Amino acid sequence: MKIGQVITAIDIGTTKICVIITEINEENKLEVKGIGTSKSNGMVNGIVVDIMKASKSMSDAINEAEEMATFKAKNIYVGIAGEHIKSQNAIGRISLTSGAHPCDIDQQHVDNVISNSKNNVKIQQGNERLEIIHAIPQYYKIDEQDGIMNPMNMSGFNLSAHVHIVMADINALRNINKCIEIAGYKVEKTYLEPIASSHSVLDDVEKELGSIIIDIGGGTTDIAIFYKDTIRFSAVLPIGGKNITHDLSVGLHTSPQNAEKLKLELGNSLSSQVPDDKLIEIEGIGGRESKKKKLKYMSEIIEARMREIFEGAYRILSEHHDLNLITAGLVLTGGASLLINSASLADQIFNMPTKIGYPYLTKLAGPTDRLENPKYATSVGILYYVYDELKSRDDKINSIKIGSSFSNFWQKVKNAFKDYF
After folding, report:
1. In DSSP terms, which residues pair with 140 in a beta bridge?
2. What residues have CB less than 8 Å from 118, skipping those under 6 apart?
3. Which residue, 130, 162, 256, 390, shows the most beta carbons closer than 10 Å to its own?
4. Pick the residue with more confidence: 292 or 411?
5. Is residue 100's pLDDT more than 90?
6. Residue predicted with more confidence, 414 or 43
7. CA angle, corner 27, sides to 21 and 28, nearest 5?
8. How far apart are CA 59 and CA 42, in angstroms?
9. Mean pLDDT value of segment 15-31
């Protein structure tokens, strides 16, 4: 990575767009230069339904970040979610050699076995119109030796890879890219939001011992399991914070805008913690007279939806993983995670320690105070993900150069002494 290199993260949600523009500084840190947010119009559950409105929303957030940064955004990396996402675990297998002697495994072998896992998924019925956005190795197997985390330079006859594959509907993905292109930019790469968020809200110990991420977005709730330093499962629930707002609007007979305001200011996920006699003023619809209603009633509406989200997540996660292995616990992110007692409710349902996922900001420099909020977990996570990928790529290139230089040096030594043997 070069000093001055710009990296831009865009978190595209159903209710909000978040943009962070950073620059690699002299200490090799990501220095925050610009932050922008906008209301997400033209999007429903992660899918573009009005391309011009959606593009305008993305452009507004990018422009705000650019004004703060005083330069244009570039190297755009995007976080997405939605019902169109499909995830599954797959296995790839290749033969390393057809001879009688084992073969040393190099980077090409690793790339080939991961490609094989992707091909095995792509040929499955129903996946024809899906595009793979992640193929994350979980562990490898060499011959009969299982549970290998890094097979490089090891020897064997056959190599297998257990890989977590994440796919997105190709039309949904292209429409998001078109929105950004209409705004005058180009997407470099796309990331699933809970995978990106894991880079900012989970530390190495949490990933190793086992953690669950539940990211409650506006239109959907994204869930993922991390165990032994890799992702084990991910899925999307078609319910989110907008459903809570809608229920409040109907139940309290008020506008969606006022329902959202009440949710953010007074929302409580445990109605048992709310006094029976506390009343709140509820604004009428279309100029109608305001009325007083019990805060407890409002909390009962919120709790019902939050229980639906957590119980749905628990049911799906327990079907695909032994939750007794999750030692670190549960992490809640997304806007709804900030509702009072949301962590306590999740703790009750999952019976495991729960925390709110505020992004770690130690890898960032510059004005970061504004980013100390779960709603920035994905955009900060995208930055960390990209940074790690670019650093890994540079390390591989340097390793190849060093290996090539040593090989050239050794060849020169052999050539110099060949006449003496």
Report:
1. 148, 161
2. 90, 92, 132, 135, 163, 165
3. 130
4. 292
5. no
6. 43
7. 55
8. 13
9. 94
Q: What is the mean pLDDT of residues 339-346?
A: 96
212 - beta bridge partners?
225, 330
Q: Does the pLDDT at position 140 exceed 50?
A: yes
pLDDT band at 421 (very low <50, low <70, confident <90, very high): very low
Residue recorded with tokens 């200011």: 265
CB 154 within 8 A of CB 104: yes
Task: Report strand pairing: 221-227 vs 211-216.
Answer: antiparallel
Place of tokens 């090891």: 154
8-state DSSP, 135: E
Spatial separation of the C-alpha atoms in residues 259 and 241, rounded to whole Å = 11
Residue 408's SS3 state is helix
Q: How wide is the angle at C-alpha 362 spanned by C-alphas 229 and 82, nearest 5°?
A: 55
Check if the beta carbon of residue 18 is closer than 8 Å to that of residue 376.
Answer: yes
Rounded CA-CA distance 416/399 in Å is 26
- H/E segment holding residue 47: strand 47-48
CA 156, 158, 162, 163 dihedral sign is positive
284 φψ region: left (φ > 0), alpha (ψ -120 to 50), beta (else): beta
Question: Does the structure show a pLDDT above 60 at 251?
Answer: yes
Which of 78-99 are b and which e, b meaning 16 or more Cβ less than 10 Å from the residue's Cβ?
bbbbbbbbbbebbebebebeee
| Tally of CB atoms within 10 A around 364 | 21
Task: List, in order of start, the domains of the chain with CATH numbers.
Answer: 85-168 (3.30.1490.110), 205-356 (3.30.420.40)
Q: Is 251 exposed, middle or buried (0-12, 13-18, 19+ CB in 10 A)?
A: middle
Cα separation values, 253 from 246, 257, 283, Å = 10, 12, 8
Instruction: Give CA–CA dist 32/324, Å, rounded.
Output: 39
What tokens were used for 119?
């091909």
237, pLDDT greater than 90: yes
Residue 138 · residue 164 · CB < 8 Å? yes
Among 201, 212, 200, CA closest to 349: 212
Residues 207, 213: Cα–Cα separation, whole Å: 11
pTM reported for the whole predicted model: 0.89
From the number of C-beta atoms within 10 Å of its C-beta (0-12, 13-18, 19+), residue 41 rates as: middle
Tell me: the pLDDT tens digits for 125-136?
989 999 999 999
